[in-house]
Specification:
GO terms for molecular function: carbohydrate:proton symporter activity. Keywords: Membrane, Sugar transport, Transmembrane, Transmembrane helix, Transport. It is found in: Membrane. It holds the Pfam family Sugar_tr. It is a single chain. By secondary structure, this protein is mostly helical. It folds into 2 domains: about 425 residues, Up-down Bundle (Growth Hormone, Chain: A); about 40 residues, no CATH class. Helix content is about 70%, strand content about 5%. It is built from 24 helices and 2 strands. Strands 1-2 form a two-stranded antiparallel sheet. α7 runs antiparallel to α8. The mean pLDDT is about 85.
Amino acid sequence: MSKHKISAWGYGHLRLYLLCGICFLNSTMSGFDSSLMGSINTLPNYTNYYGLPSNGTASTGIVFAIFSVGQMCAALFVWVADWQGRKRFIFIGTIGVIVGTCITATAKNLPTFIGGRFLLSFFATCACSASPLYLVEVAPAQYRGTLAGLYNTFYFIGSILATSSVYGAHKHLSHNGNLDWRLPLWLQMACPGLVSIAILFFPESPRWLVAKDRHEEARAFLVKYHANGDPDHPIVKLEMQEMIESLRDDGVTEWKNFFDLRVLFKTPARRYRTMLNLTFAWFGQFSGNNVISYYLPYLIANVGIHDTDTKLLMNIIYALVGWIFSTAGTRFHDIIGRRKMLLGSCAGMIIALAITAGTAAGYVKTGSDASSSASIAFIYIFGAVFAWAWTSMQPIYPAEVMSNDMRAKGMGTYKLMGGAAGFLNTFVAPIALSNIGYWFYVFFVFWDLFEFAFMYFFFVETKGLTLEEMDDIFESKNPRKASTAVKKMKYTSFIGADGTKREEVIEVA
């Protein structure tokens, strides 16, 4: 690439950005749901309609946690993205979300509402599993962290839409039956509806096409979107060779071999990849972030904020802060690197949670307004620090560390593990908050310390490498050291018959 520059603003790249931008809308589904449920749970019309308590209990937790149950169940079907293709699986998921939305928005009783949320979660997970697969596989290596990383920042767009719609509906429709909470539920289908209309017109992932022996279509994709239409650009030949070599022995998953999980564990390198995938899934959901995103109104109530409008506004502000910092952080993953950003963010989260716990304890013991304000401020700082490094990488890093033939099954295990962590968080959190209060923060301080140590010793750096080039990293004796070692290249020069000079890489060490 140093010898053959490709314009980031060429026609092909701009078309690719548009495709990715439409895919980003799938990410709004998770953000919309987490903030929607946290917001409508503060509305008296909603809690009275379903007979829910105003404080956190197990019944409140199951309404939230059923989303994680649906996520875990859907993880068993992520292999369909290998069988039918990335874009078809996204289409199935978005149509299912529309059906689930219709059920929840019209539910007459709590069991029907919970059932609709299960369906909504199941199909949202289908779409949200295939979307990172697609983005990671279509993005050029030099922009993968930025382009694919932007996907999860749209979590906050969904969150902003949800909290704003609930706030507006509560302000203007709270005296009009149950429209103040049913209208925001209907809006949950807006973004997936747009994706369902467009996705079938997308080109398929070139790696999936190679796995299906459709090499000419894959090459046409690389020419158009990676080389800005130049069929002779060396990046086209390089990427085709790498993909064919990577998929030569082991193709993608078929329905016949879905339950054969040996592909994830049969060699030390594959076990290392799977370990990173699973631990990142757990860390991404169990660092204190899920508790805050779902239960922010409860957290601020614990430090003296009880007005419904104020709590809704603070939910909106939290989402805005998260969106700003997560979007800013996406570019830095390709500059600073994944490891350094994740470690720095984890250190910041530990400090923020420790101060939040201390100031919350001060408020409980003294009733100090200064302690209340400081506790709320550091909840927001925690959200900003987490969003800056973690939000954009949550679905991307687990896909990057998987080889081509492992990726769909790997994302299934990622969703399964993430769903388990999310279920534990959302089901236990309201009970814990009611019983131990600020000590819940203290638990996450020590847990995040463990995360920091684990990431330091085991997490690899993926910045700047193609998905196939990472095979060499994981085959080394110590993948973490190999990924952070300085790469050196040796060149040889050739003088052509016309007198022009060119250079080729003869060794990389």
